[in-house]
Specification:
about 450 residues, elongated, three-stranded antiparallel beta sheet, disordered N terminus, about 50% helix, mainly alpha
Length: about 450
């Protein structure tokens, strides 16, 4: 009976009682990376190594261990775990961390539309599953577009780190954003909307506390989330000139969902969104009235507090009100746009309309983009400046387009008539002087002159 072939290598017992095994191949020493409780287990490992060498399938055991560890990491790393680390370590093209608002938004994706993938190992997510997810989320095309772009970026980074073999996000034409409204129709809607209709839209938006908000959005170009985050101290009031209010909206934050799941003010996504927007005088007049009636007290008081006592901040849902598909009477902005015959008008369209009106008032494209908080192209953005005071005449022009006119400047009163001089005039001179007076001056003169002087002037003697 042939004896069992002895395994190559060396087996040694350590003082702890454990067994150590190693062997030399290709002039290098190789170990299993661990010790054995039994000598037989060490012999089995050496025998298995000899078999791999004989079959031409041998690779260094340390390489095999590294591959096995990597495979274990791949098989156990879920999308949620990897993506949250990706969010925390991600940097922008400027080398800065993601804005808190962006990080919170990405986290909301994982808890919301991507929850079906969040607890699943990344390596197990297939292209077919992503395609199926795409179809299942067609109820929100714009949100789906943003969430898919996030997922694709996370998966691309996982491929680069060799955690997965390929990116499963390969939906055809997914990068195209569906506007759901032809550009030509959008253009006609914005161009055809007049200042009187915007005023009627604001008047029809109930409750009344949202009236000034609609006017502000339409004439300032603020994003709704930026306007709802405004406090009293964000409205900078300067001295009036020619009877026109000079107010400026200081934009340094916007309402967004925080990492804790609450809604609150957060820094904007881009530095361009931090800006100072001069307001047309007629909008400043409306805001002054609004602050007295609806805003919360104190410098930090919200300009548009919530209508829900449980939540401090007003929300876009509150502004929009109930929609035609809901039970009960339509309200809010939804009711107002129907009332003016513009049911297709969106709240965000007011931002587009503001830019349209700025151009009509003579404001240049570069100023328009800065007022909107958009990023300029690199060359222009490096050199262009903006003097807000130079825009004040344009803001007054905007208010004039809305039907506003500056308060009339009080005229200087005429010098008071010296009644002593009237008393020494000849009757002819007195008659001439009295005839040149307006009614108020004549009444004053008659009250001051003696009766005999008036009698001589009237009789011609």
């Amino acid at each position: 009976m042939a004896g069992r072939r002895k395994a190559p290598g060396t087996i040694e017992q350590q003082p702890s009682g454990m067994w150590r095994a190693y062997y030399t191949h290709n002039r290098r020493r190789h170990t299993p990376g661990r010790t054995f409780r039994r000598r037989g287990s060490a012999e089995e490992w050496l025998a298995a190594e000899r078999a791999l060498i004989d079959q031409g399938q041998w690779t260094p055991p340390e390489q095999r261990r590294a591959e096995a560890e990597a495979a274990e990491i791949r098989d156990s790393t879920t999308l949620g775990t990897f993506a949250r680390t990706w969010i925390d370590s991600r940097t922008t093209s400027r080398g800065t961390p993601l804005a808190p608002r962006t990080a919170a938004e990405y986290g909301a994706y994982l808890d919301g539309r991507l929850a079906v993938f969040a607890t699943k190992p990344m390596a197990a997510i297939t292209r077919a599953e992503v395609d199926e997810w795409w179809l299942a989320n067609q109820d929100a095309p714009l949100l789906r577009h943003h969430v898919y772009a996030f997922l694709k970026s996370v998966m691309a980074d996982a491929v680069d780190r060799e955690l997965i073999a390929s990116n499963p996000c390969k939906v055809r034409n997914a990068a195209r954003r569906s506007t759901q409204r032809p550009k030509a129709l959008q253009n006609d809607l914005i161009v055809g909307l007049g200042p009187l209709e915007v005023a009627a839209l604001a008047d029809a938006t109930k409750p009344d506390q949202w009236r000034a908000l609609v006017l502000l959005l339409a004439w300032s170009g603020l994003r709704p989330s930026e306007a709802l985050a405004l406090t009293r101290s964000d409205l900078v009031v300067a001295a009036e000139v020619d009877g026109a209010k000079r107010w400026t909206a200081k934009i340094t934050k916007a309402l967004s969902q925080t990492t804790a799941g609450d809604v609150g003010p957060m820094p904007p996504k881009t530095t361009e969104s931090i800006r100072f927007v001069p307001l047309p005088p007629h909008v400043a007049d409306e805001l002054a009235t609004h602050l007295d009636q609806w805003a919360a007290p104190g410098p930090d008081g919200l300009v548009w507090p919530s209508t829900n006592p449980v939540r401090p901040f007003g929300s876009i849902k509150q502004v929009m009100g109930t929609h035609p598909g809901s039970k009960g009477q339509v309200s809010g902005f939804n009711a107002a746009r129907v009332a003016i015959g513009r049911p297709e008008l969106r709240l965000y369209d007011l931002r587009r309309w503001a830019r349209h009106m700025w151009r009509k008032a003579g404001i240049g494209d570069a100023d328009c983009e800065q007022l909107l908080g958009h990023k300029l192209d690199p060359v222009m953005g490096s050199y262009v400046t903006q003097d807000r005071e130079e825009l004040r005449p344009n803001m007054a022009r905007l208010s004039e387009l809305a039907g506003w006119s500056p308060p009339s400047t009080p005229q200087a009163s005429a010098p008071a008539i010296d009644h002593r001089l009237l008393r020494v005039m000849t009757p002819e001179q007195l008659r001439s002087a009295l005839g040149a007076m307006d009614d108020a001056e004549l009444a004053d003169a008659v009250a001051q002159l003696p009766a005999e002087v008036l009698a001589r002037a009237l009789s011609g003697r």
